[in-house]
Known about the structure:
Order of helices and strands: HEEEEEEEEEEEE
Oligomer: single chain
Largest sheet: 8 strands, antiparallel, barrel
Strand content: over 45%
Number of strands: 12
Amino acid sequence: MNKIIWLSLLMTNAAMAAGPLSFGIRGGVPLTDFFNDVNNGNIAVTTTTNRYIVGPTLELRLPFGFGAEVDAMYRHLQYSSVSLVDVFTNNRTTGNAWEFPLLGKYRLPTPVLKPFLKAGLAFDTLSGVKSTVINTIAPGTQRTTTTSNASDLKNSTTKGFVIGFGMDVKAIVVHISPEIRYTRWGSPHFQFPNGSTLSNQNQAEFLIGFTF
């Protein structure tokens, strides 16, 4: 949360210095899970999806309804896997995902309510990944290991293509912008050793932006 506040202040200062820029905050609800609930042979996976995504936003307004937007979106991730190979293994992995969409935007020239379309690229990077592994060797005998190198982590950073649509409503000094956004990631963050994908490469979310 401190990182979100710091990024918000940085983007606000940039907007105030540059002139035709608007700044604010964007947040919403993921419509898809970060991970897939899958069974991979003797490995069973359960996931916990935190139903929020939030971060600062900055937009450059251009003539004729065009614009450019950059966001810094944060969400938390968590999954657990249980393996029955050789010994009973319980693995719990947590971390933070930071998503940076770079978007072109077009608003239709309508009064008051302005529908818009947007498209562009996004970069997603993980931080603070921690994996806690509990091995049960025999009844009553356990060994616990905590590491920042999760065994299923394949790519700490990935990029993808973004499309979205929504409505821009100006209420006195603030623009309120609900939207639906879809991202297709080019590669998964997490993957089983046999190559099957654990993290979801399709991402959809409902977002609302408040910009000034």
